[in-house]
C-alpha cells in the first residue's frame, strides 16, 4: 500500500486503519477523506453539527456548519463512496468554544476559538467518541504534517504550503492525540488540492474557504459580544490616566487596535494611538503610541506539549498569532508556567492568545499567554 501525501512517513506495509474523517463540507476535508480511502484505510465520514440553529446557507465565504455545508459533505462522501453520518456536538461546542470565547473577552483577554475547537471538540470530544466506537484515527483537512520517528512516536510539523499552514492551531495536541491523528494534506499546496478535487469530481472543488470566526457568520465580533454581554459604558484613557473618550464595552477592543477608538482629538504628537491595555476591573481601555505595544517577554499558562515537555531553558522560534511570523525566543518551563523572552520586540500580543514554540518545522507545544512584559510608555 502506498501512503498518501501528508500521512505519517511509515513503511508501505502500514496497517489498514479504521479512520473517522471529519468532513466540514469544504474542499480540504473532502480531499483528505478521499486520500485516506486511496491509502487503503476503512473510512467513515462524519459532519459535526456545531450550531444549535444552523442557517440554511453560508454568508459569502464566512462561517461554516450550515445546512448547506452538511449537504456538501454528504455529497462528497457519496462521490468518495464512504458511509456518512452527522453528529450533533452543538451543546459541547457552545460550552467549550462559544461560552469560553465570550468569557475570555469579558475578562479582557483575546481568545483563539479555532485553537480551542481543536483542543476541546475535534481532538477531544470527536476523537474520544471515535476511539470508543473502535476507530483507530481521526482524519482532518488541516494543513500540517505528522512525521513518524524511527524508534516510535510522532512529531507534528509545519505544512509544506506556508500560506496555508495550520500547525499553530494544532499546537494544543498532545502525543496521545497525535498518535490517533491523520493530516493527509500536509505535503500539498492549496492549488493542488483544488485541482485534485476537480479530478475526483468533487463538487466542492471551487467552494470558497471559510474564514474569520465560524460561529459569527457576518464577521461582526463586536456585535456578537454586545448581544451577549450588554452595554457596559466606560472610559478611554491615555497612559497617564487622562480621560480621552468613552466606550460601550471594553470587550469590544483588542490589544493593538487602532481604528474605532472614537477619540475626539489627536495625540499631542499627531501620531496614531493604539489600544495598549484593557482592564475589566475598572472597565477602562488605555491607549497610547505604537511603541507601547512592544512586547519583550511573556508568561504563559496551561502548557500542552506535542511530545515530551522540554527541560531547562531552550532556544526556539515562537508564533504568537494565528497569522503571525515566527520570532526567535528563549523559553523555559518553570513552576508549571512557560516564560518566554523575545530576541526582538513583537507587537499586537495580548493575553488569551496562544504562544506556539517551534524547533525548525517541528511543533514543540503551546501555552496560553497570561501576561506580557512591555516597555513603560514613559520610557518611549
Q: Brief overview, please?
A:
It comes from Streptomyces tateyamensis. This protein has 380 residues and is of the alpha/beta class.
Q: What would the principal axes of the Cα set say about the shape?
A: globular
Query: What topology, given as strand order, has the largest sheet?
Result: 12-15-14-13-16-17
Q: Average the pLDDT over all residues and give the rounded result.
A: 89
Distance between the termini: 62 Å
Q: Look up the CATH topology of the largest domain.
A: Rossmann fold
**Total domain modules:** 3
| Name of the CATH architecture of the largest domain | 3-Layer(aba) Sandwich
Radius of gyration in whole Å, from Cα? 22 Å
Seen as an oligomer or otherwise, the chain set is single chain
GO molecular function: ATP binding; tRNA binding; tRNA-uridine 2-sulfurtransferase activity
Protein name: tRNA-specific 2-thiouridylase MnmA
Keywords: ATP-binding, Cytoplasm, Disulfide bond, Nucleotide-binding, RNA-binding, Transferase, tRNA processing, tRNA-binding
Site (Interaction with tRNA): 142, 353
Q: Would you kindly provide a written description of the structure presented here, covering whatever features stand out?
A:
This protein has helices spanning 27-38, 67-80, 90-106, 113-132, 167-170, 175-178, 190-199, 221-229; strands spanning 18-22, 42-49, 84-88, 137-139, 145-148, 154-157, 181-182, 234-237, 243-247, 274-279, 284-288, 295-305, 314-319, 326-334, 337-346, 354-359, 362-374. It has 380 residues and is α/β, with parallel strands linked by helices. The chain folds into 3 domains: 18-206, 3-Layer(aba) Sandwich (Rossmann fold), CATH 3.40.50; 231-292, SH3 type barrels; 294-379, Translation factors (Elongation Factor Tu (Ef-tu), domain 3), CATH 2.40.30.10. The strands form 4 sheets. A 6-stranded antiparallel β-barrel has the order 12-15-14-13-16-17. Strand 2, helix 2 (67-80) and strand 3 (84-88) form a beta-alpha-beta unit. Helix 1 runs parallel beside helix 2, helix 1 (27-38) packs across helix 7 (190-199) and helix 3 (90-106) runs antiparallel to helix 4. The longest helix is centred in the first third of the chain and has 20 residues, at 113-132. The protein is globular and about 65 Å long. It starts with 17 loop residues before the first strand and ends in a 6-residue tail after the last strand. The model is unreliable at 1-13 (pLDDT under 50).
